[in-house]
């Protein structure tokens, strides 16, 4: 069933004239957000200009230039919007109205800023930005609203493309499901492969563009299912064609088709932001998130004794303790962990009772003693919840570590393959029972890990892993039964291999997921890393003693906000690239991660947050950043010596460019700046040059990946990206950056299959 992209575009049909933003508008993608950044910056410059009694010709000319630039940019933008409208008739009316509003607003801003040629800009005879500030604000609001609407409407086109691509894939899948001959299957599967390649590109780009990390994780999970199921569909269908009367082969094939349809449907739900039949998504609540919310409420009593009721707090604790029963009722939780969780649950109830008692007294009489008692009760309650969180984390992760270690030899899978080839139905039945037991253990492990995952994307990854074990287990069993019934069938043997590989792959991914969950718990990940090796003023540079640390005021922070946002986006791109390397100790990775961390701390500075408190702190950080960049360039030179490729000169050229840019940044960071204006100019220059270095870094990292693949020198260096990682799908052959074509479900191998399948031998 095709889903209408219009239902979830986030665009209201009401007029946005005079409003700050259309109430129905919601920006869901980074591309739309980034397009708006420069326009917002220019309009903010106009609106925030200072009204002074005397205005120089230079000021008037600058205001007029900005107004004209806005109008010209809007004109070009609207031309593109109108072309899109003409090509998409279902959006033509809405798009045309938004384009007209944008053009009108741009022209109004140009008229109001046409002040450079006037002797008296504030004259009543000519309405300008100086005489009608309200008019400029209204025009600016209309412009932002209408431009945003055009962008979001254009985004519907992308959604429509994905839906159309999905529909083509579904239609071809229906044909594949019904084929009865090898020749027909080969022909249709070739078409199916091409359609999956197109769908992979479209959804990969969309995944990278999504702002919502939770949706990114769900998209990554769905695309991982499609990646694995594509090869399963090939072998399962071949097996079914070879053995048309085999019931287990049919069950095996039907399971693959069903799972692919569910994954395709979930992708559409994500891109259209809708659920079938209008139902709301009910996300399961984890113990971690429950404890976090509970503690926030408890600590909020310090500021306000009346913002919630004791019943609300008691209910929240009851829900958390109900979830701990997943641990205490589990057959796989150790006796020691079970006892500790039960003790801490009992203690949590007692601490809350004491807290409520003191809290009620404090509401009636706010004495110093009572407030001190309340503080003690708050601390004891929160400490108890922290201990409970630590205990369930230990229970879940120790179980996971033990299970993954125990099943690392894949003995059951090996036995199924051997007994299947032997045609030993009795032995296959015995080992399928063992696999079912293993599946139940792993499913339970995933459920418990979800409670302690620490972030929503990791929760989604745990749910995806649980589903994978739940579905793949029975599919392995049906594939093994088919092989046991037809022990001489090479295609049945190949089919079992494919499903066993999917199981092994998921187990491998669980080891990485467990490491990620532990990192979040220990505070290493989850939140953006902040570089902590900031030199202290006066210790590393004697000249700093004479300089007075300066903070930026709110106006200056607003001016560099655009640069800061760009820096933030670039750090995400760099992190996305470095996390693909298996060897995290590699020099290129280490320097890249360090630079990204420092750039992020500089971004926080533009927001008035983070460890960099003064401009002097920022300049120190810029120096260290430049030094790290120079070290990276040295690592790139060393790497180039191992590469024999036509692209080697390009790598060396980029490395030299990096050295030059880092030297320029060092010079800027060390330059003297006296006075507020000069200091702000220096801040602006440092952040701008840091942004430029990060942009180059985004190009260098994928280039290194490309050279490693081409020269086959990085087999142990680049890991196949696990499907639970946000915006990365296992390909093994295709890396990407968020601004490039996304990976294609490991589709390279699929394309090879399509190209080489001139016939399918029935063996």
UniProtKB/TrEMBL annotation:
The keyword Cytoplasm is annotated on this UniProt entry: yes
Keywords: Cytoplasm
Record has Mitochondrion as a keyword: no
Any Pfam family matching the protein: Vinculin
Composition bias, Low complexity: 7-18
Family statement drawn from the similarity comment of this UniProt entry: Belongs to the vinculin/alpha-catenin family.
Domain of life: Eukaryota
Major localization listed first in the record, in broad terms: cytoplasm
Region described as Disordered: 1-20
Protein name per its UniProtKB record: Alpha-catulin
Swiss-Prot/TrEMBL GO biological process terms: cell adhesion; Rho protein signal transduction
GO molecular function: actin filament binding; cadherin binding
Gene Ontology, cellular component aspect: cytoplasm
Cross-referenced InterPro entries: Alpha-catenin/vinculin-like_sf, Alpha_catenin, CTNNAL1, Vinculin/catenin
UniProt subcellular location: Cytoplasm
